[in-house]
Amino acid sequence: MKLAVTPNHFDMCPNLLEAEADILIMGNTKFSNRLPYSFTLDEIKDVITLAHSNNKEVYITINIIVHNDLLIDIDHYLNKLKELDIDGLIFSDLSVYELAKKHNLIKYLIYHPETLNTNYYDPIFWEKEGIKSIIISKEITLDNLRIISRESTLPIGYIGHGYLNMFHSRRPLIENFFKYNNEEYQQFINNRNLTLIEQKRQESYPIFQDEHGTHIFREKPMKSFRELQALQTMLDFLIIDGIFLSTDDIVQATKDYHTLLTNNNQQTLNDIDDQYPEHDKGFLYKKTVYDKY
Amino acid sequence: MKKPELLAPAGDLEKLKIAYIYGADAVYIGGKKFSLRARASNFSLADITEAVTFAHNLNKKLYVTTNILPHNDNLEGLKEYLIALDKIGVDAIICASPVIIDTAKKHTDLEIHLSTQTSQTNFEAINFWYKRGIKRVVLARELDKQEIKQVTHNTKADVEVFIHGGMCVSYSGRCTLSNTMTDRDANRGGCAHSCRWNYDLFLDNEKLNNNMYFSMSSKDLQTVKHISDLIDIGVHSLKIEGRMKSIHYIATVVHTYRSLIDEICHEEDVDIPKYLLEIKKAENRLTSHGFMQGMTTINEQLYNMRSENPSQAFIGIIRDYDKATGVATVEQRNKFLPGDTVEVFSPNFGSLKFMVEEIKDEEGITLDAARHPQQMLKLFIPFVVQPFDMLRKIP
Questions:
Q1: What residues contact A125, with CB distance under 8 A and at least 6 apart?
Q2: Per-residue model confidence (pLDDT) at position A286
Q3: Most distant CA pair in chain B, distance
Q4: Domain spanning B5-190+218-300, CATH class
Q5: pLDDT band at B305 (very low <50, low <70, confident <90, very high)
Q6: Which residue among B69, B194, B296 sits closest to A115, beta carbon to beta carbon?
Q7: CA distance B90 to B64
Q8: Per-residue confidence band for B293, with pLDDT thresholds at 50, 70 and 90
Q9: Residues B360, B364, B365, B371: is their CA dihedral positive or negative?
């Protein structure tokens, strides 16, 4: 199983490669949602050169929900990306599949619509479409991931570490709230230090508004050190999502997962897991209710 | 001018009949399995059979939602269920997951519509599905009219657009607020509507909302002013949301849009204010045009207020009428009194008014008021009415 990490700056990419990240995931905010950092094409080109010289890979994300007015720009972007020797192309909207076909990029595609890949048939469906991989939805439990993996001959990925997104609205919800109150709002756009607390709960959910709308995340970042051995048998790659994490935290998490992938003894596992007391297990054991309430 | 289909929701057989009688060309319902709105989806296969028969006798269509995003353990009986729907003769199923789409394609001849749960926002994505046998696509509710036009003109798929009812604040199908906060899976029928709750907004530790809660809640969609444009664009189906709404809501909303579509397509002068007044009679949350005119503003959001506006105006539904005596049998829904002025709301003649004289119960005993919900009452109505006509009290 490879470790795929989203860097929060161009300058940290060498550190991540040194920490034994196998794949760097990056993109430009014009075409990507919820990135820790927006890479220019020149930066992507440099990272690819560096990564390949270290036998590592680079996946590009174009994971926005695409509206008609961006189709031409995505087409142009793909035209440039195909010159860059990318190793994977993560997408969420099927327009990207249609456009990638024109550029002969289908074999690089990795389907990641956040919530739609939920059962054993999804990899079977997408394998027939000729793509490289799919990323299983975050709300799928470890038990279900095991079943999906058993049935799948298509490589699959899963987010194993970091903050999980739980809401994306096209609406400018923060801007509108301040406008309604006749207050200044510019300072709160693209501001990643905002949180929401629900009236009857004490949980604090990160929220921000950007050019693609409003995004809300789970309160706690997740970790999966104790599940790593099991996940290793199921996944092609495990994602460490760097959003809201410091450079040091992203690098350290990468090192820690790599350490456990090479030496998963109980003492090391306990020592590492203890370093992340604020993290929870995401949906790994959280079976959500279907139709019984 | 191509007349679009008017598509209405129904949560049970009575609502389904009301929707057709008041002018829907097609109705969508949920079965016991594989459908969102689990609490509203109470159609057994026997009910669906009755619904199909009722629809086809009127030369109308019935669609069944199979629009959950199933996990592995939700798939038992899928093939058998879809085959049963096909045999019953439903006109289409509404799907979001490849496993349901491909099972239907492999084992049935069912027409497949792609649910709004997949958030289809552009024509390239829609064409992906059209090439894989999807006949119709329900667009995401985040599109404005210009985008709807571009999509419709660049695909061979039939395009279905929401014109009325509740709206997800999130892109539909991409939200797990409910999963996270309540363990209820929004994409398998358990949405707790967490996006409509009250929140405080903080910058680090500083609370930013001092006068009111931070709210994300959306007004409901209402597009009376936009129907003419949607017809001009060539949208195939105009869809009303609300499988959990009341019969009065269904009747009022369906009849308003039915009359409006017919007038526009007959190229009559359309009295928009009349329709705006009429649709307000449906008990409803506050409404707006959603994304129809572009990005949402403060006018499409709900702030600092509860929006529910339960109407007391709906007082009864006609169950029978004796033409010889002029006495109607009415099932009570809200309190009314002798002397009240009442409007009969009918799919046949629009509305006519009369004054309530004597109210009797089924035993013929005179009552001083109609107090009890669902009590059968007898009253004189000075013109011919029919079963399923509704009574509204005029304030």
A1: B98, B99, B102
A2: 85
A3: 75
A4: alpha beta
A5: low
A6: B69
A7: 7
A8: very high
A9: negative
User: What separation, in Å, do the N-terminal and C-terminal C-alpha atoms of chain A show?
Assistant: 38
Sign of CA dihedral B17, B19, B23, B26: negative
Q: Which of A187-191, A257-261, B48-52, B207-211 has the lowest mean pLDDT?
A: B207-211
Structure tokens at B285: 């949350």
Please say if the pLDDT value at position B311 is more than 70. Answer: no
The CATH class that applies to domain B314-393 reads mainly beta
Residue of A290 and B73 predicted with greater confidence: B73
Q: What's the pLDDT score for residue B307?
A: 55
Question: Looking at residue A292, what is its pLDDT?
Answer: 45
The residues that bridge with B391 in the sheet, in sequence order, are B316, B344
A290 contact residues in B (CB cutoff 8 A): 68, 71, 74, 185, 188-190
pLDDT-derived band at B183, boundaries 50, 70, 90: confident
| Strand B350-355 versus strand A133-135 pairing type | unpaired
User: Would the CB atoms of A198 and B194 count as touching at under 8 Å?
Assistant: yes
Q: How far, in Å, CA of B111 to CA of B30, rounded?
A: 16
| Cβ of residue B272 closer than 8 Å to a chain A Cβ | no
Q: Report the chain A residue with the minimal C-alpha distance to residue B301.
A: A176
Are A83 and A48 within 8 A, CB to CB?
no
Taking Cα atoms as reference points, which of B189, B97, B73, B190 lies closest to residue A143? B73
* pLDDT value at residue A293: 37
**Tokens encoding B51:** 């619904």
How many DSSP H helices and E strands does chain A contain? 10, 12
**Pick from B71, B147, B296: which is nearest to A171 by CB?**
B296
Whole-number average pLDDT of chain B? 93
Domains annotated on chain A, with CATH: 2-164+218-274 (3.20.20.70), 169-210 (no CATH)
Distance from CA of B187 to the nearest CA of A (A): 8
CB atoms within 10 A of CB B345: 24
Cα→Cα distances A101→A62, A98, A106, Å: 15, 5, 6
pLDDT, position B41: 57
Of B28 and B310, more confident: B28
Transcribe B86-151 into DSSP letters.
HHHT-SEEEE-SHHHHHHHHHH----EEE-GGG-B-SHHHHHHHHTTT--EEEBPTT--HHHHHHH
Nearest to B199 among A68, A140, A199 (CB): A199
Query: Is there a contact between A288 and B185 if contact means CB atoms under 8 Å apart?
Result: yes
Candidate from A98, A119, A125 with C-beta closest to B71: A119
CA nearest to A173, candidates A215, A123, A206: A215
Fold match between B5-190+218-300 and B314-393? Answer: no
The mean per-residue pLDDT over the stretch B91-119 comes to 97
Q: Is the CB of A167 less than 8 angstroms away from the CB of B170?
A: yes
- Tell me how far apart the alpha carbons of residues B138 and A94 are, in angstroms, rounded to a whole number: 15
Choose the closest CB to B122 out of A71, A170, A174. A71
Give the number of other CB atoms < 10 A from CB of residue B313.
22
Q: How big is the A-B interface in CB pairs under 8 Å?
A: 210
Break chain B into its structural domains and give their ranges.
5-190+218-300, 314-393
B65 at interface of A, judged by CB pairs closer than 8 A: no
Is residue A197 pLDDT above 60, yes or no? yes
Mean pLDDT of B349-360: 94
Mean pLDDT of A24-39: 97
Global confidence as pTM? 0.95
- pLDDT category of residue B306 using cuts at 50, 70 and 90: low
**Distance to chain B for A14, nearest Cα, Å:** 31
